[in-house]
Each structure stands twice: as C-alpha cells, then as structure tokens.
Design brief:
By secondary structure, the protein is an alpha+beta fold. The protein folds into 5 domains: 247 residues, 3-Layer(aba) Sandwich (Rossmann fold); 100 residues, no CATH class; 169 residues, no CATH class; 119 residues, no CATH class; 33 residues, no CATH class. It is built from 25 helices and 30 strands. Helix 20 packs across helix 21.
C-alpha cells in the first residue's frame, strides 16, 4: 500500500495549499484505501463418514469408496448427498473450502454407478461462470479417474469432457461425435450448443439422457445475466425427455437474522432461476463448529499473549486462551441454536478490543497478537502441506478506491468548505450552499470550478467535469478561477496577449496587435459571485472576485498553454487523480510480487490471481501488464547504466544498457549457438538492434500523461552537443523574435525543436 500511495501521490498536482493539505489529510487517513478487513475461516461441523453411507446405510453405491476412500464428510455435505441419493435437487450455500463441489460430483457419480448407464449420452451438465474453474474441476476429475484405477485396477467407466470454446477442433468434434457422461461448460457455450447446427448430435444426446443440471457459483448470475441464463435453462428443460435434477452451489446468496429467513429467500431465487419447485429443506447451509474449549478469561489471555506461542499440535491451538477469545469474538456468532460467521473486522478493531479485554497497552498487545497470528499461520502451512485440518486460517481484504474528485463551496479560501465526497449541498444549518467540482490544471495545478452559466436564472451552476457537453451548452459551460488576494489580475489583455494563438491576433495599420472580434468571447471574463453562484457587477459583502473561462477556449490560461480545438477537457485539466485502472492494477500486482520475493517465498508460489468480467478485459490487462514490465525493465537498465557512467551518448548507451539488462539470449532465439560463434554474434547483434530502437523510442518525450519519459520524471537530463554552437550563431541576434530570448530560453527553444 505504501507503493500504491506513492504512485497515487505522484499524480496529485495541486497548487492551493489548503486543498493540498485537505487531500493529503484524507489520503493519510485512508480515504482511498481504508484499513483492510481480517476474516477468519471457521471450522465446519463433521457429519457421517462416507463409509457409513455406503456400507451401513447403503444409500451410496460402493464404487464411490474407490474414489473417495477415507473421506470424512462435513454435515452440510452429508445432508446434500442424502438429498441427491433421494433424487432431489438442492442448493448448497457454504463458504470457500467447504467442499461444495463434492456434493454434486458425488451425487452424479452415485447415479451413474447405480444406473450403470455409462456412455449412453450426456447425463450431467455442470455449468461454471469461468473457464478457469472448468479447467480446475477437470483436473479434479482426472485425479478421481487415477485414484479409481489405482484402487481397483480397472479403468474409470465415467467419461467427462470440457466444452468451453477453447478446445481444439479435433477435441470439439470428438465431444460432438461421442458425448461424455459429464460435460463441463459455461453458459455461453451451453447457449451455442443448443442452437448451432454443428452440435446437433451432442444436443440430441443431451435431450435424450440429461439427468442433472448443475450451476456452480449461483450468486454470479444476477440482473440481466441471471435473466438470460434463466431463459436458457427453460429452453433446455423444455426439450429434455425427463426432468433433470437441478443443483446449485454458492458461497453466499442471502442475508437474514436467522437461517430460516435466509432459506426462504434462497428458495425463491432457486425456483425463479431453475424454473423448479424447491422446498426450504432443499436449501442446505453450512454447519459451523466451535473447536476451542471453555470461555475467554482475561487473565489467561494476557498471560498467553506475554508468552511466545508454540503451536505443535491441534490441541495446543484449541486450548490456547487467545484462540478461545478469537473464536468467541471474531469467528463465530451464535443466533438461536446455530452458529453463523462473524463479520470481518479491521485489525485495529480486533486489537483494540483484545487490549481492553486483557488490560494491556495497545502497542504491546498489537506486537503480541501479530506473533500469535504468525505462529498460527506457520502451523497451518504444515497442516495444509500434509492435507490435514487447519485452524482459523485468515484472509485479508483490502479495498481500494479511485481518487475521485474534490468538491468545494464557492467562497474565499479561508472559509470555503472542501470535501472529497460527491455531495450536492451543505447541511441546512450551514445555508444549503451548493458544492462545485474542483478540477486542476495539469501544468500549474491551479484549481478551477467546473460551472455552467445558467443564463435563464442568471447564476453559475455546478457542472459535472468531463461529461459530454452538447452544442447548446458549449456557449455557457466553463470554469471559474478565484482571484487571489494581493496578486496581479489573473488576466490582463496587454500583458497576456502574447500567449494567445497567432490566428486570434490581427495587426492594425500601425502594427499594433489586436484580438480578433470572433475570439473575444473565448477570453477570461471578470465576475463577482456569491456562494450560490449568483453574479454581481460590483464586489459586495459575501461575494468573491473570479474569472470565468469559456469551455471552448482550448487554452489553459493558468499556464498559457494552447491546445488543439479537438483536445478533450480531460487532457487540459484533471480531477483529483488521473491514475488509470489498468496501470493501478499493474502497480498493485507488481508490488505484491516484489513483496512476496522479499518475504522469501519460493518463485513457484509467487502468484497473483485476477478475475475480470470478460475475456477481452483479461487480454487487455495481461497485455498492459506485460508492457508495464517491459518498459520498467528497459528504463531501469538505462537509469542504472547512467548511475555507472554519469554520462552516455548515442554511441555508448546501447552497450551499457544491454549489459544492465542481463538478457538470457536463449529466451529470444529460435536456435541457440555457442558463445563466440558467428551465429551467436549475429543473434546478439539482432537483439541489440531491437533494444537500441526501443531505447531511443522510450527516451522521447511522451504525450501521454500516465507515461512521461525518464527526463520528464526528473531521472535524467538530455542535452545536445551542438546546442551551444547553435545558440551562439550570429544569425539569431538579428531575428525578430529569437533575438528577444535569453541564452537559457534559446537553449530550451532549440531543445524543444529537436525533440519535436
């Protein structure tokens, strides 16, 4: 978060001290990234063993013992299996890692082995919201297949295949020609195979033999997408010869004070989604179990915190006083006769309550509690590695907001109210004054009010920044800049005329410059306004002096920068921050990977998993990240080359940068060659040519705000050997304009010409 904070602050360019202080205060207090929430996973109540259902009660086929031998069921899994064995559908609502997928997989396999109907068509369709989940589940089926063969010496009779749109043509044709017993797919491909001519054989086998329709992660199907999938389910069921058993799973679907209330809501949703008649008894929730023993004791908790925790056995965790306190206060919440998950809380909230309970200093308690969590994590790593039960594994949820905008009342600096929340007016006791969105010059950081001159009511009304402005509004849209006390007038025609575009100027017969009439309505206009935006011709009590800049000026009058007429408003001015979502994601991901490296994690586990809502965004983000890394590598090499040499030129920068890149040649060539050979030297030459082009391309000044070059970032300076000679040429001393420039101004001018 420190890395991200530095990234965000690099975009915050605010000249006004009061606004800058307020923004920094909000950032420091976590306005954009509130303190993360910590969520502990509870323990699930165990149910009957699988062998009991197979051998004692004989409701599950014995062959499942060859697939799930020795597996102990949780109570919600047992309940679901009993429903499935009875031919009823169900919806399992339980947390991550609770074995939801086992409920429908076991139900389907039990049906297949009981009916012995292998290879006669598609008996089950399992629909996942993402292909990543399909690939993961497919690997699970592969493991079931392998385990069955190892335990029986026979081939696994159940066939299963993926149908996601990413398979090869051969695999797709094989699935159509010989449909599997179990088909893993997504709702888009399910829609296509129900409509396309090429999938007719597969479609017919589904209609003739489908017995189970499963939707994983039910909570993802909401709104319009949920309606689309609901219609898809109805189309499928209408063609099936027999009514398929419908099954759903989800980590969360409803809230309520009691489980009965939640069941009622989920039942209604399931009936709407599946076009079925679920009863509340078919909605199965997780059963949570209290694993610690006894009640929290303040003296024991304090004594335990003062000792270094040493967890070597499960019992040492269950009996630990801090574990008892955590489970009671932060993991479980008893409602009636059933435990529910407690709401996630911030680290400070947990530690503050713990310190008060144990009568300890907050900082001391914080250090000791962190030591407890680290010991708990170390024990759980060992448990997980050996496929054993873990205790109170926790997740950290960090929410991150975009920087948004600044809003302020239209008043003098010392009394105007500044907010970072999008609110329309102050409270009635403060006069119900309107808030205006503040934007900032990208060049100077000067603050401007985004306004619309309401000519009917004669007032300057708030205007949303960077919103489409139609042809009628262009005339009245614009910005207000407050005139600073004891400062020169913001705009002076005689003083600032030289900053205007050449086509705005004409010369009279005496050669004096004049502003053309058609451009006068684009110049800043002096106004006096009160806090409600009402104008006045004179400065009166409660009014401030300001300058109205028309929207269509295409000039940043705070810096004198002239923009093209097609330039977007967001190119000239910015809201509080201008960070892009893709770049923000890159910065966060890169920082996470670096922190994992510094923490000593093996490269195999230095991973970040990102979910996006569609394939196009996924491809865009991955490409964006690859570019981000490549640019970072190249710029880092250039910068380090300069650190070693202090000065580089076009003849030395390539070799020095190439040396710092430490490139593994084998990653870039089709056929490796021995070092020193002709082919090896040619490979090096080709790679160097490509890198040299990238170096020169990257050193140029960029027009993009989010990717300035190294010189614009202040990390190096670019100069030109012949610049002094050019500046001192005699011909410039007689030039109409250049003769008026100082030597430094001439250097800046010629440098700019060379860059262009």
């Amino acid at each position: 978060m420190s890395d991200y904070k530095a990234y965000i602050e690099s975009f915050v360019n605010i000249e006004n001290q009061l606004i800058r202080n307020r923004v920094n205060e909000e950032i420091t207090n976590g306005k954009l990234w509130p303190e993360p929430l910590i969520q502990f996973n509870p323990s699930f109540k165990t149910g009957a063993g699988l062998r009991q259902l197979i051998h004692d009660e004989k409701i599950i086929h014995p062959e499942l013992d060859n697939i799930f031998k020795g597996y102990n069921l949780y109570q919600h899994q047992e309940e679901a299996l009993r429903k499935g064995a009875d031919g009823k559908g169900f919806v399992v609502v339980s947390g991550t890692g609770s074995g939801k997928s086992l409920t429908y997989i076991s139900t389907i396999l039990n049906h297949l082995f009981t009916k012995q109907s292998f290879g006669t068509g598609v008996k089950a369709i399992i629909v996942y919201p993402m292909n990543a989940l399909i690939n993961s589940q497919f690997l699970k089926f592969e493991k079931f297949k392998e385990k069955y063969k190892n335990n029986t010496g026979r081939e696994f009779p159940v066939t299963f295949k993926k149908y996601t749109g990413q398979e090869s043509t051969e695999d797709k044709q094989s699935t159509i020609a010989t449909p599997p017993d179990i088909l893993l797919t997504n709702y888009v491909m399910l829609e296509l195979l129900l409509t396309r001519n090429a999938e007719e054989n597969l479609r017919n086998k589904i209609f003739n033999s489908l017995s189970f329709l499963v939707f994983d992660e039910l909570h993802t199907y909401r709104g319009r997408q949920g309606s689309d999938v609901g219609i898809l389910i109805r189309k499928l069921k209408a063609q099936c010869k027999q009514k398929p058993v419908c099954i759903g799973t989800s980590a969360t679907m409803a809230t309520g004070n009691t489980w009965a209330e939640q069941q009622a809501v989920i039942t209604e949703v399931a009936n709407q989604f599946f076009a079925d008649t679920f009863e509340t008894s078919q909605i199965i929730g997780e059963y949570l179990d209290k694993v610690t023993e006894g009640q929290p004791d303040a003296l024991k908790v304090k004594a335990a915190l003062l000792k270094q925790p040493d967890f070597t056995t499960e019992q040492s965790i269950k009996l630990h006083p801090v574990s008892i306190w955590i489970e009671e206060k932060n993991i479980l919440e008893l409602k009636g006769d059933r435990y529910f998950r407690a709401k996630p809380r911030t680290f400070n909230e947990i530690v503050t309550e713990l310190a008060a309970f144990a009568n300890m200093e907050l900082n001391d308690c914080m250090v000791k509690f962190i030591a407890y969590l680290q010991a708990l994590e170390a024990f759980n790593k060992t448990q997980a590695f050996n496929y054993l039960k873990t205790y109170f594994p926790f997740k950290i949820h960090q929410f991150i907001n975009q920087t948004g905008s600044v809003y302020a009342t239209l008043e003098a600096d010392h009394i105007r109210d500044i907010q970072l929340d999008a609110i329309s007016r102050t409270s009635p006791d403060k006069g119900s004054k309107p808030y205006y969105q503040i934007i900032f010059s990208r060049i100077t950081g000067t603050d401007l009010y985004s306004v619309l001159h309401d000519t009917i009511n004669n007032r300057f009304a708030p205007r949303p920044y960077n919103r489409y402005v139609d042809d009628e509004e262009v005339i009245n849209a614009g910005y207000l800049v407050l005139q600073q006390e004891k400062s020169d007038p913001f705009w002076d025609e005689q003083r600032d005329m030289e900053n205007l575009p050449e086509n705005w100027i004409r010369y009279d017969k005496s050669g004096n410059p004049q502003i053309k009439r058609e451009y006068r309505n684009r110049l800043p206009e002096r106004v006096f306004v009160n806090e409600f935006g009402n104008p006045s011709e004179t400065l009166k009590p409660g009014f401030v002096e300001a300058w109205f800049i028309p929207y269509n000026s295409n000039i940043d009058f705070t810096s004198g920068t002239v923009y093209d007429s097609k330039t977007k408003e967001s190119t000239m001015f910015s809201s509080l921050g201008v960070e892009g979502r893709s770049t923000s994601t890159n910065v966060l991901v890169f920082s996470m990977i670096r922190q994992m490296h510094f923490a000593g994690l093996y490269s195999e586990v230095q991973k970040v998993l990102s979910f996006t809502d569609n394939r196009q965004d996924t491809a865009l983000q991955s490409g964006h990240f690859n570019d981000f890394i490549k640019v970072g590598q190249l710029r880092s090499a250039i910068w380090r080359a300069l650190l070693s040499n202090s000065q580089l030129d076009y003849s030395t920068i390539l070799d020095e940068t190439f040396d710092k890149l430490r490139i593994n040649i084998s990653e870039f060539v089709l056929r490796e060659a021995d070092p020193g050979s002709h082919q090896y030297n040619e490979n090096i030459k080709a790679i160097k040519n490509a890198i040299y082009y990238k170096i020169i391309h990257d050193l140029r000044r960029g027009w993009r705000v989010i990717l300035p070059n190294l010189e614009q970032c202040g990390l190096l300076n670019i100069s030109y050997r012949s610049l002094n000679d050019e500046v001192n040429r005699e011909k410039w001393k007689n030039h109409q304009i250049l003769s008026r420039l100082t030597e430094d101004q001439l250097k800046l001018f010629f440098s700019s010409c060379l860059i262009i």
